[in-house]
């Protein structure tokens, strides 16, 4: 159950990271509200997952999911560069996330 909460928390982190772009510096009310709600839910679920998972693993996976997801959505939604080296490093981050999960003992 903790891993499920952690994955959802990571996906919500992607949501609020991308949401920051749409808030336009927190000047747009609806995107700002949705971004803040996503932040609170993401942190709350991370906190619940960290009750049973090691904090280093939980935080690393949470940040990794957020970083990879935000980078991929940045490429798709905002036409950010999708260079070979960038995709290679994103792939390495995915391997690191899987490695943290595999070696966590949970």
TrEMBL record:
Subcellular location: Cell membrane
UniProt superkingdom: Bacteria
This protein's record includes keyword Hydrolase: no
InterPro entries: EmrE-like (IPR037185), Small_drug/metabolite_transptr (IPR000390), Small_multidrug_res (IPR045324)
Record Pfam families: Multi_Drug_Res (PF00893)
Keywords, sorted A to Z: Cell membrane, Membrane, Transmembrane, Transmembrane helix, Transport
Any one annotated GO CC term: plasma membrane
MF terms (GO), sorted A to Z: transmembrane transporter activity
Membrane topology: Multi-pass membrane protein
Spans through the membrane: 33-50, 57-78, 84-103
NCBIfam families membership: PRK11431.1
Family affiliation: Belongs to the drug/metabolite transporter (DMT) superfamily. Small multidrug resistance (SMR) (TC 2.A.7.1) family.
Protein name: Quaternary ammonium compound efflux SMR transporter SugE
Organism expressing this protein natively: Deinococcus terrestris
């Amino acid at each position: 159950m903790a891993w499920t909460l952690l994955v959802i928390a990571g996906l919500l982190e992607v949501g609020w990271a991308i949401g920051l772009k749409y808030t336009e510096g927190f000047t747009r009310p609806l995107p700002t509200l949705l971004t803040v709600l996503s932040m609170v839910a993401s942190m709350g679920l991370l906190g619940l997952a960290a009750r049973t998972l090691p904090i280093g693993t939980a935080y690393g996976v949470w940040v990794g999911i957020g970083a990879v997801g935000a980078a991929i959505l940045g490429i798709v939604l905002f036409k950010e560069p999708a260079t070979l080296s960038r995709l290679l490093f994103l792939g390495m981050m995915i391997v690191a996330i899987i490695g943290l999960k595999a070696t966590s003992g949970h």
